[in-house]
Amino acid sequence: MMYHSTIQPHELRKLIRSGHLKFAGNAALKIYGRLDCSSGKRMKRANRVFFDMEQNAISNGFRPCGRCMPDDYRRWKSEQETG
After folding, report:
1. Which domain holds residue 31?
2. What pLDDT, in 10s, does the model give residues 61-72?
3. Residue 24 DSSP SS3
4. Residue 32: exposed, middle, or buried by beta-carbon count in 10 A (0-12, 13-18, 19+)?
5. Closest listed residue to residue 55, CA positions, set 11, 1, 18, 8
6. What are the φ and ψ backbone dihedral angles of 66, each rounded to 5 degrees?
7. Local confidence band at 83 (pLDDT 50, 70, 90 cut-offs)
8. 36: domain CATH number?
9. Which of 24, 59, 68, 72 would bridge with 34, disulfide CB 3.0–4.6 Å?
10. Cβ atoms of residues 51 and 30 within 8 Å
11. Across the chain, which distance is largest between two alpha carbons, in Å?
12. For residues 60 and 9, what is the distance between their CA atoms, to the nearest angstrom?
């Protein structure tokens, strides 16, 4: 997990273009999603974190975004209700 506030803009662009960062999350809300998510683009920089793999987001206690990852969110929601 990498905090947006600790990455220089040129480093961030390089990591995204190279495919090293694939997901972004909101550290305050514990939600992660795709980099092109409209909800994610509106969050405060201080709350934004980046992940290289979806599993890293999940292992850090984040849940999928309902807007950009609806199938994953429904699966997560179902697991929460049954488990």
Report:
1. 2-82
2. 999 999 999 999
3. strand
4. buried
5. 1
6. -75, -20
7. confident
8. 3.40.10.10
9. 68
10. no
11. 44
12. 24
